[in-house]
């Protein structure tokens, strides 16, 4: 946190840190309009296996089927034709209520790393560091051909 002489606070850090610091500064009388924040490190992660979370059964996404390669979510028992209307495999999985893990959604944190059981993916944008062979960062990946993901 930086407190320059103009009375503006600049927060930079993870989501939970910035929320706590903003609340602290406001409780100390700081003008909320003068607290600026920049997310660093991604938003809070969604993790499968959490208790108390109501999960929907995975299903086909709403709308017409895409013309692209088949994307199979093996653990969910679901195969969906890819549509370029989805920015990433992660967003397709979410549209199908397939449980996922993610944080940054930009190819930086590797929270979304997923085993690719068959097929290959392409990236847009390219991740900061590629995952290990046989894995994909689904937040920035699209299918290059029919793929089977361990989701
Ligand atoms: S969610 Fe961070 S790399 Fe995919």
Summary of the model, kept short:
This protein has 151 residues and is of the alpha/beta class. The protein is 13% helix and 24% strand.
What do these coordinates show?
This protein is an alpha/beta fold and 151 residues long. The protein has 2 domains: 31 residues, no CATH class; 80 residues, Roll (Ubiquitin-like (UB roll)). 13% of the residues lie in helices and 24% in strands. It is built from 2 helices and 9 strands; from the N terminus they run E-H-E-E-E-H-E-E-E-E-E. The strands form 3 sheets. The chain has a 5-stranded mixed beta sheet with strand order 4-3-9-5-7, with no helix packed on it. The chain has a two-stranded parallel sheet with strand order 1-2. It has a two-stranded antiparallel sheet with strand order 6-8. A hairpin with a 4-residue loop joins strand 3 and strand 4. It is elongated, with a radius of gyration of 19 Å. It starts with 8 loop residues before the first strand and ends with a strand. FE2/S2 (inorganic) cluster binds next to loops.
